[in-house]
Each structure stands twice: as C-alpha cells, then as structure tokens.
Amino acid sequence: MHELAPALKPYFNEETTEDILVIEGTHAASHAARLARVQAISAYPITPQTSIVELLSEMCATGDLDAQFIKVESEHSALACLVGAASAGARCFTATSSQGLLLMHEIIHWVAAARLPIVMVNVNRALAPPWSIWADQTDSLAQRDTGWIQFYGESNQEILDTILMAYRLAEQVMLPVMVNMDAFFLSHTAEPVALPKQELVDRFLPPYQPEFRLDVNHPRAFGGLAKPDVYMEFRYHMQQAMEEALQLWPVIAEEYKYHLGRWHGTAIESYRCEDAETILVTAGTITGTTRLVVDQYRENGVPLGLVKIRMFRPFPVEALRQALAQAQRVGVIDRNLSFGQGGIFYSELKSALYNGDHRPLLNGYVAGLGGRDVTPDVLAEIVEHLIHSETGQDLVWIGVKA
Amino acid sequence: MSQIPVSVPAQEIMGSGHVACPGCGAAMAMRNALKVLGPKTVVVIPACCWSVIDGPTPHSVVGVPVIHTAFETAAITATGVRAGLRARGEEDVNVMAWAGDGGTFDIGFQSLSGAAERNEDIIYVCYDNEAYMNTGIQRSSATPWGAWTTTTPVNNPKSRPKKNIVDALAAHHIPYIATASVAYPEDLVKKFERAKSIRGMRFIHILSPCPPGWKSVPEQSIRISRLAVKSRVFPLFEVLDGWKYRLTQDPEPVPVNEYLRLQGRFRHLTPEAIDQIQQDVDSRWNQLQQRIASSF
Question: Do B83 and A214 touch (CB under 8 A)?
C-alpha cells in the first residue's frame, strides 16, 4: 500500500484496502465483478462499455478470475445467455450501453420476471440517431418498468462498491440490478479507487446459493404458460420484492460500511441540506459538480443543498419526502428526457411528493443531453432560475441554442 | 407374453398428459429423444408449440428440468445453461435446445449461428412443422414452395423454396448434424445416441407432421412422415464436421405426389406445380448423392 495523503484516509480505509489503483470507471466495474467472484460472464462490445469486458477477459485468461466467459454475437444474446447460466445457479455479470441496452429490452423484462439476480453495468450513453457516444441517461431510464433495481453512480469508487452491494441485494430479493455510470465522465475518467481485500468481500458477499435452479436431481419447469388465475400473483410478488429491496438497502449499506469501511449514503444522499431553503436534486456525475456549486453558494450565505438519488428503482419515496420536508424550492436536474413529458427524475419526484405532507415549489431542468458539459456556470444559472421562480415549471431547457 | 425386440429404449422420461394436438409429431419426437438422453438432461424451450404442449404452470410433462425462454434465444439460453452447470462443476448433463422452425430458421437464426460458430456444447433440435403453427399457420422460411398457409393463400402460395437449414449449419463446420423422422424411430434414436456421445454443437432436424397446419388426418401423421422420406422430400442423413455426408435410410422411392396428396396445404397445386416440386426434389437428391460420394 502507498502512503496515503491525510485527506484521503477516511475514504480509503487502510484496514480494508488491498490496493489503490488510479483507474477508469469501466475498470472499477471489472474489478468489482472479479471481487464478487462472478461465475459466468457474457458480453458483446459497445463503446464506452467495452473496456469493462476487455479487462474481465484478461482476468479470465490469467486465472485471476475463475469464470465462464461467453463472447456472444449480440447484446440480446449476452443477456439471454445469462438467463440460462443464472437459472443453472451461477452468479452472473454482464455490461452494456445505449443501443445495446435497448436491444436487450425483451430479455431485461425476462430476467426480472424469471427472478434471476443478475447484476449488469450500463454505461449511460445517448441514443441514436444522430449517433452519439456521450453521456445521457435516457437508455437506462427507458428500462424503468422492467422490474430491475437501478442505481446511478457519482464516482468510480461508488461504482465498485455499489456493484458488490448489488449482488447482496439482488440475491436476497431475487431481482436483477442495473448499476449505471455516465459515459466518459466516469467510464473513461481515471480516479483513485480502493480495491477491498478479497477476504473481507467474501465475508460480506457469500457464494450464491439459489433455492431453485435447473437441477437434474430435482426436475422443475421454469416459466411455463401461466393462465389468468395464477399470472397476477407472479407480478404481485415482484412488487413485494421491490418493496423489500427498499427496506433492505440501508441495512446492506450499513453492513458494507461495517465490513469494507465505506459509506455512500442509502437510497439517496443529502449534502448540506440542513436549513436549506433551496435544494437541487441530481443523479450521476452532475452531482459532483453540484457539490462544488453548493459549497460556493453556502460560502456566500445562500442556504442551498443537494439531494443525490442513488437508487431509482425502487423509487425511494419516503426518503425523498423526508429529505425535502423543509425545502421551499426544489430543482431536479435531468440528463435524460421522456418526450412529451420532461425530465424523468423530475416526473418521478413530483409524483412521489403528491401524496406527501409537504409540496415545495418544484422545477424540472433538462441539461447535458448527449454529453454536453454541465459546468458550475450552467448549474449557477439553474440555481438563479430556481431562486427567482414564483411557480413550479415542469420543463426548463438549459443551454439549448436558439 | 413374448415381446418384439426393438432398439428404442424402454425407459420413459416424458410423462403422460401433454396437451399437443392429436397426431402431433413434436410430442412423439420429444418422447423418443428423452428416451435416449435420459434423466440427466436439461431442456430449453423457446416460444413454439412446445411452450403449450408441456402443460400450463405448474404442470410439466417433460420429466427433466425445463426452462422456457424467449422466441429467439433457444441456442443462447442453452449455451448459458451449459456455462452455468459447468461453473457449478456439473459436467455430465445433456443440454438440449428444443425449438420449432420459426425459432430456428427465422427469429432464432442469429443466436443459433453464434452458438454453432462457437461450437457450444449443446444439442439443438428443430422440430420442423414448416410454418408458425402455434400462432395459427403462418409461413416461415421453412415452409416449402407452393404450400398454403394463412399468410400464403392458395391464390398466392409460397413462392420461394424452403430454406436449407442443414446446409446453413454445415457451413459452420459443427461436429454433428442429422435429419430425423418420427416415422423412423430407430433411426432417430441412433442419431440421438450418436449426438449424446459427441461434445460440441450438435444439430438434429426433425420433420414434424402437424395435422391442423398441414390439413391432414391425425392418424396419418406417421404415414405422411414416412412418405416424406420415401419421396426424398426429406431424406434421412448425417453430416459430420460440416462436410462428411452419410445417408442413413434409403427406402424404395415413390413420386412426391404420394406425399403431397395426403395434405390439404398442397391441394391447390396444379400438375405442373407438382412436376416442378418433383424436379426440385430430384435435383437436391442428386446433389446429396454427390456430397455422399465425395465424403469418404
């Protein structure tokens, strides 16, 4: 281990850390899959995901990771392959992005309804046409209703830690988890990342032991025709599992902190929200820049706060109501868009607040689509707009050229 | 009581109570396939008639673990099952994908080609009833030239020949390919035995009579299947490593019309059209003979 700068010590806990590497988000994801001891990987190349599975290929080739690696002919097959492998009882991993995620869509539904605890990393990339390889969250948010648990990450370290926690959650509630990172802002940006000690990860994440699997000694049929008298219960149980996931996630985060020494918040993270009259709500890498802007406003005496949404499904309704209970004005910044409606996190938050006790003024800002920079100046423009708003506005475009 | 000796295994893996139509070739084919493969088998079924034949949840007649999967994913799901079993150290299990012609020739062709190219260790069986029968008889690329379906009406029957799936698979140089017929169960059983003894990608193409779709009489399914082989519309042969061809049955030939005339789907054909089919069958037979001659 290198000698740590004092400021880094709380973040990179020496007792739990095997090594600190300066790596891209994609490679943080690869190391997480290795540390989770995944048994089957199936993948197809797509920018900017590809370096995740490139590194995993090397790990399998050198024996650092003992996993079956199937190099398939499409993203659709990448996920369908894991339907088979997970049903046979293996811990599974894949990664994709953008068009690849959309090609998987049928199987994304299938995996959740088959109750397979697969963990997939999606690198959030804009959809074509026109072609774009840069950051945009519309790809994963378009998978909202598939039955996958979804997380959005702010840093490479958070991506690594979230993947390890995701396996615990997935295997406990038997739903798949998608861990999302912004294209390039995370996927191809090198940051220091602490790799936890394997024996501590093993203690936190025991081997996968499914209750039901394809077992020739106990033959069962999976996924056969369900008539109307039984189908609805399958869906009811998925919703129950989602609600259980919401309850379980803070417990798993606490356990992760206990074993591995790091904490990234629960389903959300509140930053400087004490006495905050105005709060910005973000997800993904815009969060990091927003922290800086919040600090600047606080220095000037403006009571500004930040709520970062980590978990999008199940949507943390109660946690958000509590976090915003004192806020007068709330602005949601979306790097995504539901055409004909607006920013997707905005819509979700608005819906979450409707039946709550407190309804602050709420604005929806759409910014940074297709990887356009959301700089401190852009965020300051949003803050000024929000502070001076007299009524809530569903869709405010930021930085669109006239 | 004396018994006639047969070479079809006595063991029954598939249970009673399947919900196939009377005279369905797909049900007979599964029964015989599982007699050979035995209880240490996992079956992967994409959308096809067998999604229904297996019985509604929670029933299943197959008698071994079954995973139902999306239409176009039979080969890749089977690939994944093999990987998952291998990851758990379970090596002595047969993994069999069991798909119809739509799931094989059309929508599942990409993942089938991928699995074949990678030489995945699975047995892929296509029970071919020559149209989308489960959705109500729509043409597939396995539908033969001239046949009626609900999307190729009699005044505009199918104008393109049946896709040659065996040639397509042979082009992937996989270890074992065979055609099989429910009318020749001993031949079918031998092919499953051979497939079971080989590692890597194995493809078995079974012509599967469908009385509702072929507009035929259920009790004539075996007779029609036998005539498909005798008329050389569906010869029984094997392809080893993608190039070594071997005929496994060579019965006394009959004109194609013997096969066609028992099926309502061909009733509209003119004598000229039947002649055309006979010529096509003859030329494909000659091509097969040439391949056999140059194989060994």
Answer: no
Listed by number, the residues of chain B in 30-89 with a beta carbon closer than 8 Å to a beta carbon of chain A are 39-42, 44, 51-52, 54-60, 62-70, 72-73, 76-88
ipTM: 0.96
What CA–CA distance (Å, rounded) separates A158 from B296? 62
Fold exhibited by the domain A268-397: Rossmann fold (3.40.50)
Superfamily of domain B25-293: Thiamin diphosphate (ThDP)-binding fold, Pyr/PP domains (3.40.50.970)
* pLDDT tens readout for residues A343-363: 999 999 999 999 999 999 999
For chain A, the domains span 11-260, 268-397
Q: Omega into B5 within 30° of 0, i.e. cis?
A: no
Q: Which tens digits make up the pLDDT trace of B250-296?
A: 999 999 999 999 999 999 999 999 999 999 999 999 999 999 999 97
List, in order, residues 6 or more apart from A237 with CB less than 8 Å away. Answer: none
Q: Smallest Cα–Cα separation from B94: which of B86, B112, B82, B111?
A: B82
Interface of A with B (CB under 8 A): 39-40, 42, 67-68, 70-74, 76-77, 80-90, 92, 106-107, 110, 214-216, 218-227, 230
Domain A11-260 has CATH 3.40.50.970: yes
- With an 8 Å Cβ cutoff, are B88 and A89 in contact? yes
Q: State yes or no: cis peptide before B212, omega within 30 of 0.
A: no
Phi, psi of A271 (to 5 degrees): -125, 115
Q: How high is the pLDDT of residue B254?
A: 98
B156-193 per-position pLDDT tens digit: 999 999 999 999 999 999 999 999 999 999 999 999 99
Q: Do residue A84 and residue B84 have CB atoms under 8 angstroms apart? A: yes
Nearest CA in chain B to A72: B114
In this structure, the dihedral spanned by the alpha carbons of residues A83, A87, A88 and A90, taken in order and rounded to 10 degrees, is 70
The residues spanned by each domain of chain B are 25-293
By C-alpha distance, the chain B residue nearest A223 is B68
Q: By C-alpha distance, which of A143, A118, A116, A148 is closest to A223?
A: A116
- For residues A262-282, average pLDDT: 97
The backbone torsions φ and ψ at residue A18, rounded to the nearest 5 degrees and listed phi first, read -80, -45
